[in-house]
Specification:
With 143 residues, the chain is mainly α. The protein is 54% helix and 11% strand. The protein has a three-stranded mixed beta sheet, covered by helices on one side.
Length: 143
């Protein structure tokens, strides 16, 4: 019976020493990381040249006039899109994002969506004609 206790005690010591050998480097690394983070924090707190925190932005007020509206006028949130019909980024938004935005937020009454023209004729010479054509189509009820 004593031999079994000795074997069990040796096994426990062996397992414990093996675990200690595995855990010790991880603990040392964590201590090194914490020391480095404390050092970084002291550097940041002592630097007088850091920019001031950004002030919280106030909600913007935009007069939408008779801009086309999608969604409910009673929706709690409003998105105003400024569009240039030759802009590749506007096209990317329409192809990659707008359909999901419409399905998830506009059609469910969470967002009202206004579209306002912003033709950048200096870089997109046909953008103004595109905007005019889109408004005419909308006025005729075809959009």
């Amino acid at each position: 019976m004593d031999i079994i206790r000795i074997i069990c005690a040796c096994f426990v010591i062996f397992v414990a020493s093996d675990l200690y050998a595995q855990v010790t480097p991880a603990c040392k690394q964590m201590d090194e990381v914490l020391t480095e983070l404390r050092h970084i924090r002291r550097l940041l707190e002592s630097n007088p040249n850091l920019p001031a925190p950004m002030p919280e932005a106030a909600p913007a007020r935009i007069e939408v006039g008779d801009a086309p509206l999608l969604g409910s006028k009673d929706a709690p949130f409003t998105i105003v899109e400024f569009i240039d019909y030759q802009c590749p980024y506007c096209q990317q938004f329409f192809k990659a994002t707008f359909q999901d935005l419409k399905k998830l937020f506009i059609d469910t009454g969470k967002v009202r969506f206004y579209s306002m023209d912003l033709p950048l004729v200096e870089i997109h010479p046909a953008a103004l004609l595109g905007a005019q054509a889109a408004r005419c189509t909308n006025d005729q009820g075809n959009l």
